[in-house]
Amino acid sequence: MPEDANLSVRALKALENSTGHPFASVLLLRRLTGKTASNGNPFFSIELGDRTGTFSCTVFGDHPHFELLKSLPEGSAIRVTGKIDYYQGRLSPKLGKIAALSDEELAAPGMMDNLVEAAPEDPEAMATEFNTFIDAIHHDELRLTARHVIEEIGEAFRTTPAAVQMHHAYRHGLLEHTLHMARACKALLPLYPEVHADLAMTGILLHDTGKTIEYEGALSTKRSRKGILQGHVVLGYQLVRKAGLKAKLAPDLLERLEHIILSHQGEPEWGAAVYAATPEAVFVSMIDNLDAKMGMVQRALRQTDEAEEFSERLPGLNSSLLVTKPGTAQP
Q1: Topology match between the domains 3-112 and 123-299
Q2: Contact criterion met (CB below 8 Å) for 23 and 81
Q3: Is the pLDDT of residue 218 over 70?
Q4: Domain ranges of the chain
Q5: Does residue 119 or residue 240 have the better pLDDT?
Q6: What pLDDT is recorded for position 3?
Q7: How far apart are CA 45 and CA 59, in angstroms?
Q8: CB–CB of 48/59 below 8 Å?
Q9: In the structure, what pLDDT confidence band is assigned to residue 46 with cuts at 50, 70 and 90?
Q10: Which of 84, 271, 284, 297 falls 20 to 30 Å from 277 in CA-CA distance?
Q11: Whole-angstrom Cα distance, residue 101 to residue 107?
């Protein structure tokens, strides 16, 4: 295998039983965590990836490019060579040469598209459809509240991921996740007449808007200062309260809309400020959980090699995913 192959992460993972084979790739340095071994020597646990997937590996303190890695910020694009290796059944290569890409290399045609994972749906079409859901809110003040929030956060809503790792963790992921929830909401509302339709839909359209402030980074997403100190639930609550007051939304409806934002994460251990305690909040929280998990499923189906029967273990599902289609299992 030539070292100049510039293999994608998906291509690397498709190389079964290839321990020791050389490779070359252009990847993003997604995470870099400094650690100390039991013998006192330093090492880095790093996560590298491109639009097709990610993998983790270890770089020890005696590596010739250890200091270079130490100087690179997360989100840097790097060119690496190495040899295929595995740890506990997962790809974990031994890295050789490491070099940061220049601005000119990063600007080369197709480079960004290859590095940055993006939602599979067209972002322009998603944005257009998202706006139709706002327009379909019959209640004037709720519709105006939604408009105020989306206008305030601007373009960030279209580009921000929905998470750092767990679900829809890629460019346009927040828009995709919110739109999928809106579609599910529209389909399910006829089954639950107890739910205030406009209130629930407004809650869904705005539930994660705080993530446009919580996350930052063009190539690799990380939490901002405000994201760490306050979190997207509180940041979203602030956006919605400000917009609701500006739209002169009735106090009772504003309180209920704020409650949807504060409770949509479901459990305090998952980031919810409170448990869902209205019909609309329960409804939104369940749809959020459904699409988050199905987003993990969809991404695993896209990224797992066709030759594999199961995906890698998905932390959000506490399991690997059977990716073969029904009726194709071997006896």
Answers
A1: no
A2: yes
A3: no
A4: 3-112, 123-299
A5: 240
A6: 47
A7: 7
A8: no
A9: very high
A10: 297
A11: 10
14-42 pLDDT, tens per residue? Answer: 887 788 889 999 999 988 999 998 898 99
Q: Which residues contact 277 (CB under 8 A, 6 or more apart)?
A: 259, 263
Beta bridge partners of 95: 82
CA distance 238 to 232: 10
Give me the pLDDT at residue 329, please.
Answer: 60
Domain 123-299 indexed as CATH 1.10.20: no
- Chain-centroid distance, C-alpha 113: 16
Q: What Rg, from alpha-carbon coordinates, does the chain have?
A: 22
Q: Please give the structure tokens belonging to residue 13.
A: 């993972």
* Cβ-Cβ contacts under 8 Å for 274 (sequence gap 6 or more): 259, 262, 263, 268
Closest of 164, 168, 79 to residue 118, by C-alpha: 168
First to last CA, the chain: 34
pLDDT score of 245 more than 60: yes
How far apart are the C-alpha atoms of 266 and 274, rounded to whole Å?
Answer: 8
Q: Cβ of 160: how many Cβ atoms within 10 Å?
A: 25
